[in-house]
Amino acid sequence: MTTTPAPTPTGTTTPAPADGGRVARFVRGIDARLTAPGPGFRLLEVHTLVALVIGLRLVARDWSAIAERPAALTDGLTFVSWLPPHVPDRFLVALAVIGVGGVGLVVARRRAQLGFVVAWTAYAVLCALWGSSGKVMHNDVMTVWVGFVLLFARVPRRGQDDERTVAFGWPPRAALAVLAVVYWLTGVQKLRHSGIEWALSDNMSWILRQGGDAPASGLGHWVADHVLIAGALATGALLLELTAPVWLAWRRTRAPFALAVAVMHTSIWLFLGLDYSAWVLTAAAVAVPMSLAPTRRLGDFRGFGTISGRG
């Protein structure tokens, strides 16, 4: 069946848009890639690794310190505003323990979906309380958002690891998309508030001089005194963030991206003392398994060099 060209006011005809136009075809292509069937073991790998990152964050921080804060610093919360101003330390510790128990269910593959929901909820509430404003602290925002996507994943039961379905395929790809978007937005925000001068001015030199008691503050001050080196670091970080969707769209560059952000965040910790280890671990938990060929499990290192193409 052909489409009849629509007449114009002058009596001439113009061809109707073919197949909805390029934008529509692009959107449909992205949707097809995100919702393509995937193996159950890949979802299991990403789901379990992100749960382990949440568990590590739950045990690595003394959440009871929230109870020592004045009520004025915990007022005006959003999704946890129903909690009293002074949250007992016993409640905070119990919430962390319950969250770790949820992680245990995920690892044991016993009601894994419920366990992930319990772990993520405990983690998100504690992070919001720690931020004292209802907004998750930057250190944890990546893990919270990636974990939010996986709340809706239907985890494969035992015996379903090798099955390929849409239900198993979309969650790890959605987690990968969230990872890309969050990094991209961090770069966009830098440009929005400071413009290209964030990288090309002496901005990074001033930032590095705030290192204080950072593990390598002396080296950071040395870099700050050399504007070209400081500018190169800033430019590299900005470009890495802005190009994150490109890195993560291709299977070959996903693992290098995880390594690159590990180097970037480690340098931030060395020079400034800011702990973004949750970002590093979350990026690795999602990007490394998704860098493997669809038929290769994370624990199978045979033929690693044959990884190619998009996934």
Description:
The chain has 311 residues and is an all-alpha fold. The chain has a domain at 33-194 and 243-296. Helices cover 61% and strands 3% of the residues. It contains 13 helices and 4 strands. Strands 1-2 form a two-stranded antiparallel sheet. The chain has a two-stranded antiparallel sheet with strand order 3-4. Helix 2 packs parallel to helix 4, helix 6 (166-194) packs antiparallel against helix 13 and helix 12 (251-272) runs antiparallel to helix 13. The longest helix is centred in the middle third of the chain and has 29 residues, at 166-194. It is globular, with a radius of gyration of 23 Å.
**Termini separation:** 35 Å
Strands, count? 4
Main sheet record: 2 strands, antiparallel
**Coarse structural class:** mainly alpha
Assembly type of the shown chains?
Answer: single chain
Spatial order of the strands in the main sheet? Answer: 1-2
Residue windows where pLDDT falls under 50 for at least 5 positions: 302-310
Strand residue content: under 5%
Average pLDDT for all residues:
86
Apparent shape: globular
Roughly how many Å is the radius of gyration? 23 Å
Helix fraction? 55-70%
What string, H for helix and E for strand, traces the elements in order? Answer: EEHEHHHHEHHHHHHHH
Number of helices: 13
Indicate the topology:
Elements: E1 6-7, E2 13-14, H1 21-34, E3 38-39, H2 40-60, H3 89-108, H4 112-131, H5 138-150, E4 164-165, H6 166-194, H7 197-200, H8 203-208, H9 217-224, H10 227-242, H11 244-249, H12 251-272, H13 277-287
Antiparallel strand pairs: 1-2, 3-4
Helix pairs in contact: 2-3, 2-4, 2-5, 2-6, 2-13, 3-4, 4-5, 5-6, 5-13, 6-10, 6-13, 12-13
